[in-house]
Amino acid sequence: xxxxxxxxxxCDLLEIEHPIFLAGMASRGNATPPALVAAVSNAGxxxxxxxxxxxxxxIRRRIQEIRSLTAKPFGVDLLLPTSLTQAExxxxxxxxxxxxxxxxxxEFVRDLMRQFDLPDxxxxxxxxxxxKHIQAQVEVVLDERVPVFAAGLGDPAWVVPLAREQGMKVIxxxxxxxxxxxxVKAGVDIVVAQGxxxxxxxxxxxxxxxxxxxxxxxxxxPVVAAGGIADGRGVAAALALGALGAWVGTAFxxxxxxxxxxxxxxxxxxxxxxxxxxxxxxxxxxxxxxRNVIIEAWERSDLEPLPMPLQxxxxxxxxxxxxxxxxxxxxxxxxxxxxxxxxxxxxxxxIMDELIGGAVEVLQGLQHSALRTHVETKDG
Length: 380
Ligand SMILES: Cc1cc2nc3c(=O)[nH]c(=O)nc-3n(C[C@H](O)[C@H](O)[C@H](O)COP(=O)(O)O)c2cc1C
Fold this sequence. Notes:
The protein is built from 15 helices and eleven strands. It has helices at 9-14, 34-42, 56-69, 91-101, 103-115, 131-143, 159-165, 177-186, 207-218, 232-240, 250-253, 262-270, 293-300, 310-324, 348-379; strands spanning 20-22, 46-50, 74-80, 148-154, 169-174, 190-194, 200-201, 223-226, 246-248, 276-279, 287-290. The protein starts with 8 loop residues before the first helix and ends with a helix.
């Protein structure tokens, strides 16, 4: 990368070379497989594995695989939603609850399955994202002493002291100043401020207003910018807004090491920014996805998507059937507005080179043009 270096205090904190993160992205284990996590860490950034949907055994196995591929620091991201209200702990029990309390929603999804002639199959895995399961997932990450723990949704207050004991650093993701402050109160080491343009679960505030406000509100806690970053210009803009690093998701989904199904990579490569839309269709919480006819059908219906995890259980059976039928046009594909700019498959190391080298180039160019403007103003 021509010796270009992008170094902020965050690099010292995490013992990494460049302040570029592979965002933890769950997506059934496909978005951030060990090879991609390790490739980003080996390139001097911090690879983060999204582990939310994975079983305890699979989380441990993948952590060990990452360790076999890199000696550099890496992270694991889990969702810790605060709003899991269900008493039910198993998928079958939630299905029964759906049939009892939300027959119209169940019928709506059955209609969709008939309309697209999908096979009548169901997700077999019984374990759900319940408070008990999340606690067990966190215990695996603590036990493995993963260098960095990232909390997606929710409040990591209970994890922070346990992670400290293990010598780990904790990151909290926030889409608003209020949530960023809650993370800082919980004691996190780093806040990731995620703008609405981001892929996956997302808030309502765009990065230009969000990042400087979060930076001011949580000072001196370092802030990393997430959402809409896919090249050096985005990284440089994040730094200009006061962030000390970039948390990059969508741009890595087309990496050669990413094992997202090919039709989903094609949607991102071919999509324009307006096709990546927020919707509660697939999980019950607002997430930005590549637009499809299922999101449109829910929008047209008079039904409000149900809260997490009810909507997820309802739709996971649908998407399992769609996958089985090879209908990836009906499956959720979380990805952000920057998908409009992501149009070429590359290995992760090249994506890293372009993010870092590009940012250095932009920052050096800005320095020169600032100097020129100053001289011109003086002379004029
Ligand atoms: C496919 C996908 C899955 C995601 N899953 C998670 C997750 O499990 N945990 C989390 O904290 N964030 C998740 N996110 C959000 C990312 O961590 C990150 O904030 C976002 O991708 C940044 O925006 P960008 O996609 O524009 O780069 C996901 C995003 C995508 C695109």
